[in-house]
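Exam revision sheet. Question 4 asks you to relate a sequence to its structure. Input first:
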Amino acid sequence: MGIDKIEAHRQLLLRKLQAELPALGFTPMTPQDSPSPIVAFKRPNAMNLRPKLNAAKINIELYDDRVRIAPSVYNTMSDVQRLLAALSQ
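Answer key, structure tokens:
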């Protein structure tokens, strides 16, 4: 696959998250143009999201006031859509 292809794949997923999560009440902490393999968002009481994420079988890092999402080569846009759907409930 190659590192360049892995990074390009991951960046598509990260851009989708950066575009969609603010409308769901998540404030971006990671700059839009960041090459980082993760994105972080502020969200008050983020730990309260655990039950709906568990129900959807989604594992992301939750903290008191933020979330951290780290998609990788094994994730697809379908996974991102499933996360967005779970968070919009």
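Marking note for examiners. The mean pLDDT is 95.
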